């Protein structure tokens, strides 16, 4: 018997800047693409925007054409809008590969809206993702409301009420404590000294399925520590974090801060000194490198002093010199970064030339 899936609606958004110069310099059929974004709750589904400043074809001449593209067939609701204007359109359809509007907005409509030669266009999507029924079952805390709590965690002189069975289920330490005739089992309480109250509360909220509002990076790392038995080390740089799969850590950081881009995750990790997973992330960022996100990746590499990503950017620049340097997006890179990038690229070419001569 075939399994029956539920449907989860995953919401996301992309903004991109259209320049007035694009309307004049691009020709019919020239396409620009935003970087691919991963759709949460899926294994590998991704989406992006394709837009044609001069129009998709002769019929769309004088219009900007805009489309939502997905890497696998799915139902999508896409809403395209020009920021600061009433120009908007949307569709809800099953998209096999790409769908949108050949004549989204005319150049005549758009020209009065440019400010400093730019306008911003937003695409909000709702992607209908088939998921197992377990994704939409009620939260644990809703299922436990009729069962009185029977255990108390005391943290920083504050009390958190919980259930013994839940603690035993998620922690071998609590399971051992509550399976034997211990003081904690008899009293129904235990005092936690290793963690701050806020960390323990967020960990419990997470386990019960309650909403966690705007955690900071230290709280996220603290929650990760609660699931590691050996947490006497600095979780950011030592063995504690290595006991957790790096992909799981990355997923938690993405979810906690609403990030859907490995480049932004790398910046967050660098900012907060979570060095132990930087190599894993640097590899992911480098694999995502393309002409559409080159400026973002290069800026990240230099801002975060990642020699590995810098090297990949230098190689990519030398391989795609003409396309990248003529791109309007290239000017978004900091001038000092461009100087370093060009110097490093030239040195790499000279070194390769000398090697070839010798």
How big a fraction of the residues is strand?
15-25%
The secondary-structure class comes to alpha+beta
Number of domains: 3
Let me know the CATH homologous superfamily of the largest domain: Apoptosis, Tumor Necrosis Factor Receptor Associated Protein 2, Chain A
CATH class of the largest domain: Mainly Beta
Total strand segments: 12
Rg: 26 Å
Task: Profile the largest sheet.
Answer: 5 strands, antiparallel
Mean pLDDT: 82
User: Helical percent range?
Assistant: 25-40%
Contiguous runs where pLDDT drops below 50 for at least 5 residues: 228-240
Q: Give the end-to-end Cα distance, rounded to a whole number of Å.
A: 67 Å
Separate helix tally: 16
CATH architectural arrangement of the largest domain: Sandwich
**Secondary-structure element string:** EHEEEEEEEHEHEEHHHEHHHHHHHHHH
- What is the molecular shape? globular
- Reported by name, the CATH topology of the largest domain is Apoptosis, Tumor Necrosis Factor Receptor Associated Protein 2, Chain A
